[in-house]
Amino acid sequence: MNFFKRATPLGDFSSIALDVHSHLLPGLDDGAKDFPMAVEMVAGLKELGFRKLVTTPHIYKEYYPNTRDEILRQGEALNKALVAAGVDLEVQPCAEYYLDEHFDELLEKDELLSFGGDKKYVLVEASFFGPPARLEEQIFRMRTKGYTPVLAHPERYMVWMSKRWQLQRLKDLGCLLQLNLLSLVGYYGKEIKKQARSFVKQGLIDFYGTDAHDPRHVEMLKEWVKSAESSILAQVHGVRAKG
User: Fold this and answer.
1) How far is the C-alpha of 186 from the C-alpha of 116, rounded, in Å?
2) Residue 226 contacts by C-beta under 8 Å, 6 or more apart in sequence?
3) Which of 75, 177, 178, 235 has a CA between 20 and 30 Å from the CA of residue 159?
4) 75 in Cβ contact with 115 (< 8 Å)
5) SS3 annotation, 110-152
6) How far apart are CA 29 and CA 9, in angstroms?
7) pTM (two decimals)
8) Which domains does the chain have, with CATH numbers?
């Protein structure tokens, strides 16, 4: 397939509709600073065509020692703020789990936040600075517990630039892949953008997420989705340009 034969902009993200990775809950990590900012971001994501938001604050004990109960309480508070502001879009609170020993403890206790109903999708991430340690073992343990692991932003792990076969191995083990839309924008640099486009064209991606941390990210996506570059998703998802 020639992905660049017709440079048809995606227009908006209504053909994707689901954002499974964002940082909208105020005060829990490096995302939204307060409820007004969070409401502004949700309103912007709705304008972009998203119909469901799964927001995923970090759970990384060393830096962001968030708990399941804290995340659920903040999620309830955000949804009340959205209703009060007249923003008709519900946010589901989940988490982005760093794969470390603390994650192993939460998995053992069955205390993971998941989305997708019976599918029990769980968003996870690993270190960017080297090959993810014990990743296959942790995927196996999650599967035996009934969870479906979703690896966040694989395009940002430079270790896979020369070992892409390993990503297919992870998929064969039952791990799904989530790509950051901001990677396609070029927010993380040219090499990651190139890798992201390659993963999309190869059909490796199962979920998309904005990974939005602030309103600036939302505005960047608004600009990009109307550009010719977004044709890569227009072709993949078989949609036409929005009028």
Assistant:
1) 29
2) 9, 11
3) 235
4) no
5) CCCCCECHHHCEEEEECCCCCCCCCHHHHHHHHHHCCCEEEEE
6) 33
7) 0.93
8) 18-236 (3.20.20.140)
